[in-house]
């Protein structure tokens, strides 16, 4: 699957997941090979199949990425309206979720532009105590480089969307 050809749609799907659930799931591998999932609310996607997230609090995530930089992000549209409409019609108009596979770069200081973009996303919470505790001092980010994607499928409810996808990819 050519991730570059679908990148605009994938960005939309991930942003819907962030909007409706407030986080995406980021999977890495523990040193013993077991999976570890971290909720990430600060994922920002860019052009060219790249993104970054603010890395201030995770403990296992940096350790895991030090030994294996492979990552998988899963975003699911959690909108009740989206799900109700899909359940009523018996099909999803878009994929209900998406997985992005790739690698993570080293932890680095965020740029002023990246900081401004994140602060703009959470500006609604600025008057609240939690804003100061969680986001006021944030400065570290980690880049992500995505190489492939996989839609979340739900049997017959995503069959029509998958058939269209197959035609676009293989014909």
Describe it.
It is a single chain. With 171 residues, the protein is α+β, with helices and mostly antiparallel strands. The chain has a single domain (3-170), classed as Electron Transport, Fmn-binding Protein, Chain A (Pnp Oxidase, Chain A), CATH 2.30.110. The protein has helices spanning 3-21, 60-67, 80-89, 112-121, 129-134, 159-170; strands at residues 24-29, 35-40, 44-45, 50-54, 70-76, 97-109, 140-151. It has a 7-stranded antiparallel sheet with strand order 2-1-5-6-7-4-3. The chain is globular and about 45 Å long.
Would you state the CATH class? Mainly Beta
* Rg over alpha carbons: 17 Å
**What summary fits the major beta sheet?**
7 strands, antiparallel
What's the shape?
globular
Helical stretch count? 6
pLDDT averaged over residues? 89
Distance between termini? 13 Å
Q: Please report the total strand number as a whole number.
A: 7
- What is the H/E order? HEEEEHEHEHHEH
User: For the largest beta sheet, what order do the strands appear in spatially?
Assistant: 2-1-5-6-7-4-3
What's the domain count? 1
Beta-strand content estimate: 25-35%
Assigned CATH superfamily: Electron Transport, Fmn-binding Protein, Chain A
At CATH's second level, what is the architecture?
Answer: Roll
The proportion of residues forming helix, as a percent range, comes to: 25-40%
**Structural class of the secondary elements?**
alpha+beta
